[in-house]
Specification:
alpha/beta, two-stranded antiparallel sheet, 12 strands, 10 helices, 394 residues, Rossmann fold, Rna Polymerase Sigma Factor, Chain: A, eight-stranded mixed sheet, homodimer, 32% helix
């Protein structure tokens, strides 16, 4: 076990086979039995009041921290989880579960369809962020937790945090949506549609029935390349690659001359080895359907005491700050406590995974204040955030 | 002939078969014979001093204005070309030629390779923006024009304008680079690489030898969808589509529910009918290779009297204004006359085709001042541009 880390962990899973294990989906269809893969770090306290649910992004999984036996790399938010870290495992019980529709242990299109004994493929029903959250609620019930201290996530994880707050306000004391939105914009939908079309354009996709034949490698790789461009910023690409050439000179061929091209190809190819193409289709669709704008977000809820910490990043053009401001405005309108911070960063959308120091300071304070008092502290200071909207305490 | 239009036009072409008709390329390879397709509008005056060369963007062609016999739609910049328009055909002789590497009448990968009698396909040599401009110089020589009044273009057309000014400063009195850059950034290269990978991922591409078999439809369509997202802005997509649904309700299938998805699919599919996939590969590569940064741009040229009008658009994130400012800074450093205007627009990169009124005002004044005087007039006013850099007259 490393000094600041939580050492070796294992992904567990639970299957909700009996009623209400069958999930009634937003589409009207049902899904069952539903299996959820999850990990936990730290200990649930006696009054079960210290549980924090982390929700992952598009291609994430339940493995947020620590090391799986034999792995070199830790979980996806390891820098934020452990003793003394943002999500301090000496104080909090951290839960992370893989979403339904995914391919990392939870029920998704690559799972066996009990009706046929074969993978669901496109027989898997279209799901929504709401359906993902309803499945997570089963898990929280299963763990015997009545009220979560917080639900936290970046990007699609932030949508889940907003959905939790909207659907089950009595089940959480706070939410921390990071680099996210109340709804996908047409530009976000457009990028997702390109991703889907790229996968479906590959004949190896076989209308979804590629299991046993291998992934639609080329289409999925191109899809992921598009994703990676949107996760970075103009500036972070300049910082990381500029116009550096792989071999120092132009080849005067159609080969990948620039380092940035080689990087994208590498990221595309590695993604094919770790993520199911159909899961990518279903999860992007769920994100596109997500829409808590207008009256859909807490409009009919009075006396909500959920508190919000909303974080965005200046160079994030995929989930730009104006989308986080829309969340804050909706909360203000409903007189719900919200702190908003737009952090300086050149990392683009990736910032939520990278800007550990600033996020740690904000989140440790926010959770600490929640745990110690019923009054929202005004001690949060948004260093580095833009002045005109650095801090909202309403 | 319509009131303000130039009526029916035809694309002509000229082939430079004899020496120096063989073009020595930047790569060291040669290309020949070289055919250039071009159109002209208006009349060359007696002292041959009123010629303006328009350079087209990535998927453009020589047909900039007027109507081809039987066509419903005019050329790509028709709103800017004609009597009383920005490029006033009562005053100027306008030339527009299709670039080499293209597929609209100039020599490109779909042309017959004289060595084999079959289409070049990937035997076509990799070309640069410099090579395109060298081919255009043949045409300008052929037309008997010693000095162009101006070379003008948006996007890749602007690169050609910059290249003309850099390679042949004595051959032009002015240049108007619009929504362009001195070099492609890694983000721009990255989008181009996705485009190329998408085409090459399609088995119907057949390593470039698809002629006679049909285009790599799916790969080319996805490539163009990516392009269209980058040509628009977050705001223009919101204005045009918002989250409107094609059929009013979510289908809960993987179909295209949103209008923006249908639009992208439509634009992708129509592109396949009008543009050669290999040309897309070669032309994007030429753009990625383009680099007039540092000493490459006019550094060794003293006493240059070329004048520049540099235009960018606020919502253009593909060729953001900071890239136009780099052009202006390079010109200032070399004490070359430059006027810069960043125009307000929500149209993204498409703005250079759409913001006709503002461009007309700027360009008419700029060309008028050039024609009437040797002194750069300070009468240009950049309405709508941002204050801090609205106008530079140096």
């Amino acid at each position: 076990m490393s000094e600041n880390g939580i050492g070796i962990v294992e992904t567990r899973s639970v299957t909700f086979a009996e009623s209400p294990g069958e999930l009634v989906l937003r589409s009207g269809r049902t899904l069952g039995p539903v299996t959820l893969a999850y990990e936990t770090y730290g200990e649930l306290n006696r009054d079960r009041s210290n549980a924090v649910l982390l929700c992952h992004a598009l291609s994430g999984d339940a493995h947020a921290a620590g090391f799986h036996e034999g792995d070199k790399d830790p979980g996806w938010w390891d820098a934020m989880i452990g003793p003394g870290k943002a999500f301090d495992t000496d104080e909090y019980f951290i839960i992370c579960s893989n979403v339904i529709g995914g391919c990392k242990g939870s029920t998704g299109p690559s799972s066996l369809n009990p009706a046929t004994g074969k993978p669901y493929a496109l027989d898997f029903p279209v799901i929504t962020i709401g359906d993902m959250v309803n499945a997570q609620r089963f898990l929280i019930d299963h763990l015997g937790i009545d009220r979560l201290l917080s639900v936290v996530g970046g990007s699609m994880g932030g949508m889940q945090a907003l959905q939790w707050a909207s659907a089950y306000p009595e089940r959480l004391r706070s939410a921390i949506p990071i680099a996210t939105a109340l709804k996908h914009s047409p530009q976000q939908i457009a990028f997702d549609e390109v991703v889907r079309q790229s996968i479906m354009a590959d004949p190896a996709w076989r209308k979804g029935n590629y299991y046993g034949h291998g992934q639609p490698k080329k289409g999925l790789a191109v899809a992921r390349m598009v994703g990676h461009i949107t996760f970075m910023s103009d500036q972070s690409m300049e910082d990381k690659f500029s116009r550096r050439l792989k071999n120092g000179i132009y080849s005067y061929t159609l080969a990948d001359d620039f380092e940035v091209e080689g990087y994208l190809r590498y990221r595309g190819d590695s993604f094919v080895k770790r993520f199911d193409a159909n899961s990518y289709l279903y999860i992007t669709k769920a994100m596109d359907y997500f829409d808590l704008s207008g009256d859909r977000f807490l409009a009919d809820r009075t006396g909500i005491d959920t508190r919000f910490l909303v974080i965005s990043f200046q160079s994030d053009w995929l989930y730009p700050s104006h989308q986080s401001l829309e969340i804050v405005k909706a909360l203000k309108k409903r007189q719900i406590a919200a702190t908003y911070c737009e952090l300086k960063s050149t990392w683009g959308h990736d910032a939520f995974l990278v800007e550990v120091e600033e996020e740690t300071r904000l989140i440790r304070n926010f959770l600490g204040n929640l745990a110690s008092s019923n009054n929202l502290s005004h001690s949060l200071v948004c260093n580095g955030g833009r002045v005109e909207s650095g801090l909202w305490n309403v």
